[in-house]
Amino acid sequence: MNCAYELSGTRFAYGAEPVLDIDKLKINHSGITALVGPNGAGKSTLLNLLAFINPPAAGTMRFHEQEVSATNYQLFRRRVGYVQQKPYLFHASVSDNIELALKIRRVPKSERREQVRNTLCKFGLEKMAGRYAQGLSGGEAQKVALARALIHGPEVLIMDEPFNHLDRAFRELLQDLIRDIVERDKVTVIFTTHDQLHARTLADQVFSLIDGHLIPLSAMNLFTGTITGDRFNTDKLSMIIPPGIQTGTRLAIEANQLVLSRQELESSMRNHFPGRISKLATENLQILVTVEAGEVFHAVITPAALQELGVSIGDTIWVSFKSTSVHVF
Amino acid sequence: MNKYSWLIALTLSSLSASIQAEEHLRLATTTSTQDSGLLEVLHPALEAELQVKIDVIAVGSGKALKLGENGDIDVLLVHDPAAEEKFIAAGFGVERQPVMHNDFVLLGPATDPAGVKQSDNLADAMKKIAGTSSFFISRGDESGTHQKELQLWRAAGVEPAGKWYLAVGQGMGAVLKIANDKLAYTLADRGTYLAFRDKIELVIVFAGIPELFNPYHVILVNPEKHPHVKYDLAKRYADFIRGKEGQKIIREFKIGGEQLFYPDVLTQ
Amino acid sequence: MDYFIQALSSALVLIANFDKEIYSIVWTSIWISLVAVTVASLLGVPLGLAVAFKDFFGKKFLLQGLNTLMALPTVVVGLLLYGFFTRHGPLGEWGLLYTPMAIIIGECVLILPIIWNLSITAANSADPRLSLTCQAMGATAWQQGIIFLSEVRYALLAAVVAGFGRAIGEVGIAMMLGGNIHGFTRTMTTAIALETSKGEFEFALALGLLLLLVAFIVNGFLQYFQRLAR
Fold first, then answer.
1. Sheet of A213-215: strands edge to edge?
2. How large is the ipTM?
3. What is the pTM of this model?
4. Are B194 and B142 in the same domain?
């Protein structure tokens, strides 16, 4: 698959404080990539790197096979659309806000007018074209910012926490929009969220950021502990890990690597823990099962699988996974 | 007596003065009497004798007469004969009596660019000022001096208007400073001129003729128009400044060795 | 009270009849203040932006100084400049004293700290997200500057209007440096001071009402800009 971004050895620091330390990161072209992590994990910093706002302190960056260097940042920036967490709109009308993205790129006036009209139409903003941007609601402002970021046809759309503070209806509208632009315009979409499940269900690629470190999977199941021999011990649970791992204080397991069963399974999977279902939730046609088995595990299964299991909240259930499916770092 | 005794005496006397329920007399007068410093010599003696505190409101003669009309003051000491006569005729004032006179002087830069010094008469002098590019600074505040100046222009048949004629609408002192800075001609009363002489470089270019006399009259505000005015006190004020002691103070008041005002009641 | 009402009605008649004298004084006031505010803005706004964006030694001291100077007494400005402009002063040869130019310079000195200081505030009032947004949109440094100015335009206009209001309403400088010369340096405020002492209360009142009107309009603009700047 084509790569939109290739980062290697990328470091970034604010003063002496290292914020980002990424060995390798590849982001696929024309797909949806989610960056997940708690606040302060370095998500926004990484987005600023990907949007070419800040250059990294060390490491190399390639964008569509092109080496990115400090001298041509401006040009790379213009190939990206960036929607900030709480987007800033200019003190002007909605249509002027959108048009400014074209003015910056020195698009001739006649073309600008045409494109603005089309974009307003596409985002259902025709009625508020003349309204003053400062008077818009959060959702409306988000929409205008998105229109402003997309009007010039960028190759990449970057969004910082786009689903925060949105009501349900608008959330779904935005999801449809994202899927639509990926499918039709072959845009690469990168967004951050702290909702692991949401990231998993919407994105093709999920990366988790923890303390500036990147792990190539969602961190829905993330535990801290210490290694003793071939075991990783948290306060409450002891898990078997592949031999040879000597360092690391964190262990992560992808949610779809967890196997749920009513009885203890006879299989090659070396970790088996009995637990109790504490929560069942539906998201984008998948079921999130929360199991308390000493530690709390999150598994994602299909509705059909849930039917087959025939369990509900409060029931006993076994959680099994291979020692090789864990990621220790 | 030690060296502080005078201070103690002064403190005591001012204390005793403030303890007595003092009466106030409001006098409206022209800026020229105030600026010359005459009142500062005249009034302490008078205040001591009459046991009264005199509040001086120094404004242009026009404004002073207006204050009298409104009954805002008790007594006037002004120098605008024409307006004064109207004031009396309208019944606003009574007992208008001469006190003293000084005279007006035409001032100009020492270089005298208009050649006023060589004038044959006053009208000629005024015409010369108007006929050159030199500035003339006018009080323009309807004061007695302003009225006098307008009368001089009329007598000379000159229309005081144009770029050379600057009406500044301020007191005599301010006008002298402006004239000094702009190297301009102006008309001033001798008293104020003498008081300012050390601070400015203007010199007298024409003076000393009867047409430039400047008589001061005392007028009491008519108690029939304004019953609240202190008529009796005002009358005693008038009597004092027209009396032997007042006239003596006026005659002996000098700036830089020059007499400023000439008493009109006692000439000795 | 009758006296006041009578004076008020004659004042209104003067205004309504477009008394030539009155309106020429109003115009003198306005053009002098306009020139002063233009010059002070051309200096104060760039200085304000520069100070807002640059960190340098003594910045805190400068800000404190500007804050103090915002309350600069007009008579102090008048006094100092009088010393410069008077015939024996350092700038005496220029013959500025008692000319409109002297008032303009004085008012500039008076309102420069106001416009300077309020421009700093205006620049600091810009949203911290603004710069990131401009960069992310790929704006050049020049374009970012233009967008920034356009974003804080109302706050800057408010600074300029505040300066104008101070200039047109002050009397100390206009009197001391202008000399209240009829048809030349006579402004609304000096004329009001003069006409009252001349006993022309109605005339002064008419000017006072017009000054109030100007102040009212200026204040209206100020509040309008301040509201838009939010």
1. A80-83, A156-159, A188-193, A32-36, A205-210, A213-215
2. 0.75
3. 0.72
4. yes
